[in-house]
Specification:
By secondary structure, the chain is α/β, with parallel strands linked by helices. Helices cover 52% and strands 15% of the residues. It has a six-stranded parallel sheet, with helices on both faces.
């Protein structure tokens, strides 16, 4: 029996996932939660084989939670579910050492097969997305630039970003200018849009 933890913040979607997996004779949902912060403690107590994690969770996002699981409970394999099917998002998922990556609009039978594949030790990745990631460009931003842009994307101004990252406001403004230039964006808002669409944020 493959034991699964389901992490999805939308109650109807989580209920549907649990119901779909419940139809499979060889799969049992042993735990479910609605936020990224709950995943690690719940995995410790329920000891699933697979954590099925939505990428966009409140609290810790799904990729951060998956990376934590990989580090602290390496026996729990991770399958990321996403509606954000961008090549950049897939690359971030692979960098977080996830074992599978499936789009939410995949046919229902693909879900159970993906769970079985990950449980068997295979890396399961949506085929179309894998090809798109292969062809797409790498993120031109440094880790620090992404950090600055992520804070800007939630409305922080240069002074607030500077305080958060222990930088001067002038340095943050320079980072933002460089980011806009590197992404060939019109302004900061456009840079955030480009980075999000590419899956870099």
């Amino acid at each position: 029996m493959i034991k699964v933890l389901v992490a999805e913040d939308m109650h109807i979607v989580r209920g549907a996932l649990v119901a779909l997996l419940g139809l499979e004779a060889d799969i049992e949902v042993v735990a479910e939660c609605a936020s990224g912060d709950e995943i690690l403690p719940l995995a410790r107590s329920s000891r699933p084989d697979i954590a099925l994690i939505d990428i966009d969770l409140p609290g810790k996002d799904g990729l951060t939670a998956a990376a934590e699981l990989h580090e602290q409970l390496p026996g729990v394999r991770t399958l990321i579910l996403t509606s954000l099917g961008s090549p950049g998002t897939l690359r971030r998922a692979l960098a977080a050492k996830v074992n599978g990556f499936l789009r939410k609009d995949a046919p229902a039978d693909r879900l159970a097969n993906a769970v079985r594949g990950v449980a068997a030790g295979r890396r399961v990745v949506d085929g179309d997305l894998a090809l798109a990631a292969w062809d797409s460009e790498e993120c031109p931003l440094t880790a620090r630039e992404i950090e600055v842009l992520r804070l800007a994307s939630v409305g922080s101004d240069p002074t607030e970003i500077a305080a958060e990252l222990f930088l001067s406001a002038g340095t943050v403004r320079n980072y933002l200018t460089t980011i806009v230039s590197k992404l060939s964006a019109r302004n900061r808002v456009d840079a955030v849009r480009i980075a999000r669409e590419s899956g870099w944020l």
